[in-house]
Amino acid sequence: MFRRHGLRATAAACCAAALFATPAMAGSDGPGAPGAGDDYFPGYGNGGYDVSHYDIQVRYQPADDHLQGTTTIVARPTQNLTAFNLDFALTAKSVRVNGVPAQFSQDGTELTVTPAQTLPEGSLATFVVEYEGVPSTVEVDGLKPWIRTSDGALAVGQPEISAWWFPGNDHPRDKATYDIAVTVPDGTEVLSNGVNTRNSSLAGWTTWKWRTTKPAATYLAFIGVGQYEINSRTGAFGQPFVTAYSEKLGEYEGAAKASVERTPEIVEFLTGLLGEYPFEAQGGLVSSEGMNFALENQTRPTYSHLFFRDGANTSVVVHENAHQWFGDSVSVDTWRNIWLNEGFASYAEWLWSEHQGTGTAQELFDHYYAQHPADDPFWQVLPGDPGAQNVFHDAVYDRGAMTLHALRNVVGDETLLDIVRTWVSEKRYSTGTIEEFIALAEQKSGKQLDELFNAWLFTKGRPPVGEATGVKESALRVAAAPPKAVAEIDRTHALLHNHD
C-alpha cells in the first residue's frame, strides 16, 4: 500500500463514515436512510433499497406549466424496510407500495413513505406515486432547476433535477433503466433519453414514449418539451441518431447543426480512444432559451444555443459525448469525485484538438499552465476535493485536464490509454472514486504516483516543473500565439461552468 497525502486520506475516511452512518443496516428491521451518504449533498439519494427501473408517465401543459404524473418504481429492499424516502419536490397525491395504499409525508424534497407491511430484504417491491404541480414555481432550499420556456420546458440539471418531475432515488449510486411517456398538446414535440418507441394521439393530445435500456443516474434522465425540428438517421455503429433543434434558433441554427450533426464522427473518434460506446442511441438537443449550459443527458446531450453564437463549436460536442463514458457509464461514487467526470471530458477536448490539428495537448497544457501565474486563485481550488460550492469550478475542468496530461507525460501514451480503457471497461454502468483510479494508474504503470496526484489534485498552489509532476520546462513560457483550439475551448468552458 502506497502512502497517501493527508487530504486524500481524510476525504476518503469522511466518505466512508457518512456511508455507514445509516439508521438501519442490511438485514435489520428499520427505515431506510434519508440520504445516500454523500458528504457534499447529504440529503441526496436514499438508503434501504435499490431501484432497477422507472416507468414515468406525465401529462404536461406548456400553457400553464402544469404537470401531473404517475411514476412506478421497481426496486428491491436492501434491508427489512419499515419506511423509506423518495426524493421529490412536487405534490404527491397518493402512494401505493406493492399495490396497497401507504402513508406518506413530505418535507422539502423528502417524501417519506411508510408501507402497510415491512418489506423483506431482497423482495420485489413496486412504489407507485401519483402527483401534480407547477414545477417552475417549486423552490426548495433556494433551488428551482426546472426550466420553463416560452413553448414548453426543459427538465435538465446537475446535480439535481429529477425531483422536480418524478420521484426517485436521486444519487448516481443507484442507477436504473427508464420508460418515459410524456403527453402534450398536439403539435408539441418531446425529446428524452434512448429510443423513441412509439407516438400516439387522442383527443388533441400526443403521447411520446422513450426508452433507455442501460442503467442511468436520475439526473441524466431528461425531457425537452416545445417546438423542435427533429431529425432521425443512423448514427455510428448503426445506432439510432436523433437530434432536435429549437425552431427559434434563428441565426444560431446553422452553426448548431454544423456542430451537433458531427456527433457520430465524434463518437467514433472517442470510441477509438476509450473503447466500445456504452449506450444504445446517440444524438443531441439544442435549446434557444432558458439555459446557458450544456449537460450530458445519457444518449442525448442538451446544449444551449449560446455555444454556437460565434460559429460552429465541436469542443462542446466532444465534451458532452466524452461524458457518456466519464459520468454516465462510469459515474461518481460521491460528488467529491467530480474530477472523474469533468477532468476527463475536458481532456477529451484536448485530444480532439490534437486529432484535428488545431493544437496538441502539450501546447494546450503549456497555454493553461502559463495563463495562470503561481498566485492566481485558480490554483487554490483542489480538483480532488473542491467542496460542494466548487464542484463546477474552472479548476475542476482545466486543472483537471492538466492533471491527465501530466499523467500522460509521466506514464506515456500507451499506458495512459491502457489505464483509461481498463477504467471504463471495469467500471461500466457503476461508480468510481479518485482513489480507485489512482490505484489503477499505479498498477498499470508500475510507478508510484503520489507526488503527481498530490500536487495536481490535493495540494493548493501551482504544481512545480519536474519529472514527477509531469510539468515540462516549456510550460513556463507563454507562446507568441496560443493554439487555435483555445478560443473554442475557453468559450465552451465559460458556459459549462454555469451548469450548477
TrEMBL record:
State the reactions this protein catalyses.
Release of an N-terminal amino acid, Xaa-|-Yaa- from a peptide, amide or arylamide. Xaa is preferably Ala, but may be most amino acids including Pro (slow action). When a terminal hydrophobic residue is followed by a prolyl residue, the two may be released as an intact Xaa-Pro dipeptide
The Peptidase M1 membrane alanine aminopeptidase domain sits at 312-456
Protein keywords: Hydrolase, Metal-binding, Metalloprotease, Protease, Signal, Zinc
A Gene Ontology annotation in the biological process aspect, one of them, is:
proteolysis
Q: Name the InterPro entries for this protein.
A: Aminopeptidase_N-like_N, Aminopeptidase_N-like_N_sf, Peptidase_M1, Peptidase_M1_aminopeptidases, Peptidase_M1_dom, Peptidase_M4/M1_CTD_sf
| Single Gene Ontology MF annotation | zinc ion binding
Q: Which residues form the Aminopeptidase N-like N-terminal domain?
A: 52-220
A Pfam short name: Peptidase_M1_N
Q: What is its EC number?
A: 3.4.11.2
Q: Which domain of life is it from?
A: Bacteria
* CDD domains, A to Z: M1_APN_like
Which range is the signal sequence, renumbered to this chain? 1-26
Q: Which cofactor does it need?
A: Zn(2+)
**Similarity remark:** Belongs to the peptidase M1 family.
Can you say what this protein is called?
Aminopeptidase N
